[in-house]
Amino acid sequence: MRDELPEDLDRGFVGAYKFPDNKRRRTTGCLYLLVAVCVGSWSLLTDGEPVLVNGGLILGCAALALFGVYSLFAGRAFGLDESAALVAANRAVGFPVGHASAQLGWRGLMSRPTWKMLVYSAEDPPANRGLVLVDAIDGTIVDFFVEENPEDWIETSSPDSGIEGND
Asked: What is d(CA 83, CA 97) in angstroms, rounded to the nearest whole number?
């Protein structure tokens, strides 16, 4: 018995994952604004049926419009993808990068997209590791931390690395 995806979830995709761009927020922001304007206009043009149109509906339209405007401003397109962020992280840490992992996060009130890059040096076993935050819009290094690798790699080292475990 193997652990695998159910048939209805398995799309058979093989290859590099493409992170969705942040600019998709603009589409939802436009839809929020459209709904807020349409419902708000309708509520002002009706005869004021208290069951359908009241202060709560107007407040809801205003809140939806504000969130739509926020979505338009927060939906800025990426300036670099994860491979370009890895190049920027490689320059910041000061050692050749071997294994690396990328995660996309957001920071600040305007949800600025930021790549979180966990990098290991290219030696086997890795001597250093680092965490680098790279701005996904302009590619600047937000922050980074580098340290000697404290993990014990003797159990997982390859036989040709020259490191042997105690037998």
From this structure: 12
